[in-house]
């Protein structure tokens, strides 16, 4: 039995008629390129002159033609099968009405050096991703620490504890600025020298 999301279509693709002309042109042009490369290779294997200048000239032309042919071949991928995509915004709005049909979302966060990437910044990024307005059962956040820093691990452990309070707070109060650092910076009072004052109870 298919799920509801598999029945929904977000867009439709309509191939353009000029794709046939593009393919014919690609075929003719490819034959011309192969003939040119064959000519260069034949000239190298059976040279008409024995001068080194003629040999290196032909060799350089062969190499340059191979590079240009490779670049041209890569550009043909956009012209070989051109299509027109027509989106269906109404389908997306219909999907948004049923959060259980949201697709799974994976957020991958990389860090390596705690001196260049402060652990508090990494923790704030993790909390911001976890605070997305998205069904929690379909959201996964992964952190890859290539440096294996214990300080980063400790910061993420503390962030996980803080997230138990921060995430419900964001959802209950409909907070738009869900990065903790940005949120508290915008709400704390500032003095004339742009320093924040903290009151500890």
UniProtKB/TrEMBL annotation:
TM regions (residue ranges): 20-40, 52-73
UniProt xrefs under InterPro entries: Cellulose_synth, Nucleotide-diphossugar_trans
Designated name of the protein: Cellulose synthase
Protein keywords: Cell wall biogenesis/degradation, Glycosyltransferase, Membrane, Transferase, Transmembrane, Transmembrane helix
Subcellular location: Endomembrane system
One GO term describing the cellular component: endomembrane system
UniProt-annotated binding residues for UDP-alpha-D-glucose: 116-117, 146
BP GO annotations: cell wall organization; cellulose biosynthetic process
Topology of this chain in the membrane: Multi-pass membrane protein
Keyword Oxidoreductase: no
GO MF assignments: cellulose synthase (UDP-forming) activity
